[in-house]
Amino acid sequence: MNQQSEPPPPQTPQHPPAEERPSVPITRTGVAWWALGLSLLLLILILVFVLQNLTSTTTTFFSINWTIPLGLDLLLASILGGVIAFLLGGARMLQLRRVVRRYARNQRRG
User: By the 8 A CB rule, do 74 and 53 touch?
Assistant: First the structure.
């Protein structure tokens, strides 16, 4: 009887456990890069929306009438809504900062 030994199984590289593997840290620059990419994608989608809705429409606001393309009209309305939300959020942050400063000052005193 001829006994031939089987070749040893191929060696697979041993990877360290996940906790020991070096990882690339998340940096502000990397986050900014992804935010820029997503913003550009959103800008392209908005541009396509505006270009597909160029039908003129008459808009009335507090008895002021104007004719403007529908896509542009909706874009301007959403920008106005965003500005209002930004101003309200900024006012709330200033209010909270004032409360935190007052609280910290009172903690130091007593």
Answer: yes
| Dihedral sign from CA coordinates of 13, 18, 21, 23 | positive
Boundaries of every domain in the chain: 28-109
CB-neighbour burial class of residue 69 (10 A; exposed 0-12, middle 13-18, buried 19+): middle
**Is pLDDT at 13 greater than 80 in this prediction?**
no
In this structure, are residues 26 and 45 in contact, taking their beta carbons and an 8 Å threshold?
no
Cβ proximity of 67 and 57 under 8 Å: yes
Tokens 């403007």, residue located: 68
Residue 33, both tokens: 């890069």
Instruction: Tell me the pTM.
Output: 0.57
